[in-house]
Amino acid sequence: MVKNPTSGAQDTLPIGWLSTMESMSSHRSPSPDPLALDQPWARTAAGANTLGFETSSSTPPSTPAVMPTIYERTTAAAIAHDAVNLGQGFPDTEGPDWLLQLAARAITEPETGPRNQYAPGMGLPTLREAISDAQARRQGVELDPATQVMVTTGATEGISATILAFARPGSEVLTFEPHYDSYGACAALAGARLVGVALRGPEFRPDLDAFEAAITERTSMILLNTPHNPTGTVFSTEELTRIVALAVKHDLRIMCDEVYEHLVLSDARLPHRSILTIPGAEEVAVAVGSAGKSFSVTGWKVGWVTGSAELVSQVRGVKQFLSFSSGPAFQWAVGHGLQDDQGFFAQNTAELEAGRDLLRAGLEELGLAPNRAEAGYFVLGNVSGITSLSAAQFCRVLAEEVGVAAIPVSALTIQHRANPSDELEHLVRFAFCKDHATIEEGLRRMREHLPAALASHPPADARPANARPATARPASAAPVTAPETLAPASTGTP
Q1: Could you tell me whether strands 378-382 and 149-152 are parallel, antiparallel, or unpaired per DSSP bridges?
Q2: How would CATH label the architecture of 71-94+344-485?
Q3: What confidence score (pLDDT) does residue 31 get?
C-alpha cells in the first residue's frame, strides 16, 4: 500500500480532476518525495506532479491515485469552457504534404520495401544514415549510422531510455527548471530524485555557479534541454562547454534534449549548438532529437538518440525492452525528409516567428511582460504586474472567465511551489505554434474580458496604466469554431 507522506488532508493533492482548472490553482504542500514511495507507479506519478490521494472529512488521505497531467487538464479546461487552447504545444497545421505522401507511399507501395512490419531495433538504415548526414551538415558532427544513431518511438522514449540507463537508484538527477514533465517521471521511475536549478528571467540564462553548487556525491546524471522548453533559451557554446567539463570532472552522464533544434528563430542571438560538438562530450553525453517537432508531425512519434557507440549501446539496452521498434513507414518518410527538407525548416520557422511576434505584442499590450522566446513553440508571460494571483490561479480565471487556456510554469517544475514570491510561480506559458486566427482570437478575448476578470485581484502595487475597463466574458460567448483549436487530450505534449 502506498502511504501519503504529507502532513494532513487539508494539504493533499486532489484527484479525479478533469473538467476545471481547480487543482492548478489550489495552494498545497510540496508533492511527495518520490523516493519515499514504495510503488514504481506512485514514484513515477509523484515525479511528474500527478500523484493524488483520496480524502474525506473524517480520515486522513490514504488511497493514492494518478491525476491527469497538466496537458490533459489544460485541454479539458479548453473544451469545458469553449476556450482557445494556447496551452498545449501542438501545431494547428499538419506537416508538409510531400512528407505525408511519402509516408502513405511507404505503407502501400511494395517498391519502397516492407514498411508495415517490425523495423530493426536500431531503426531503418535509411533514417539512421539521414540523421548522420544531417548532423554532419548542420553541426559538423561525424556519426557512424550503424553504431552511433538509434531511432526511438518519439523523443520521449529516447529521454526515458536514457534516464533509465544512467540514473542510479537513490541518486540525484540535475536539471534546469522549468522542464519537460517527463524528466521528473522518468527519474522517479529509475529510483532517482530530480533536482532543479531555476532559469531566471528576463533572459532565462543558466546560472552555472548555482548549477555546479547543486552537484553532490549523489548526483549521477545531468538533463539539459537546448533550445529550451518553455523559455526558448538557446544555450551558448561556453555554457555547454562548462557543463560538459563538470560532467567529466564528476563522472556524470548527460542527456541533452535537442528536439527544438530546427525551431530556432531568425532573431535568436545564438545558433543551436549540439552537445555533441563540445570537446569531451563523446565520453559523457547523448543527444535526443525529434521528427515530430522538426516536421510538425508530433503524432508520428519518431525520435532518435545519438552519441558514442558505447553510450548509445547502453541506452539501447533499455530501449529495446520498451518498444523494440517504431513505425517503419514513418521512419522511411522522415529519412527522406532529413535528406531534403524542401525548404520546410526555413518556412516553418518563419511562420512560427510571425506567430511569436503576434502573440508577444498582444501579451505586452496586456501588461504580461513576455520574454524574448528565441526558439521553440512558447512565450512566457509574467502575471505579477497585473494581478496578485499566482500563475496557476490566473490560468483558472483565464479559462473559466476569459475563454483562453494556458499553462502555469509552476506545473513544469519539480513541485508546485508554495512560495508566492518565487518568480516561476508567476509565469504562464502561451503557445504560438498556432494559426494567426487562433492567436488573434485568444488575444481579443483577453483584451475584452481579462481586466474585469482580474478586477478583484489587483497586483500588489498599482494596476498598470494600460489595463482598461472591460466586461467579463458572458457565459454564452461563442466558442472557437475551428475544431483544430480543441485537440484531444494528450498525456505528454511538451
Answers
A1: unpaired
A2: Alpha-Beta Complex (3.90)
A3: 64
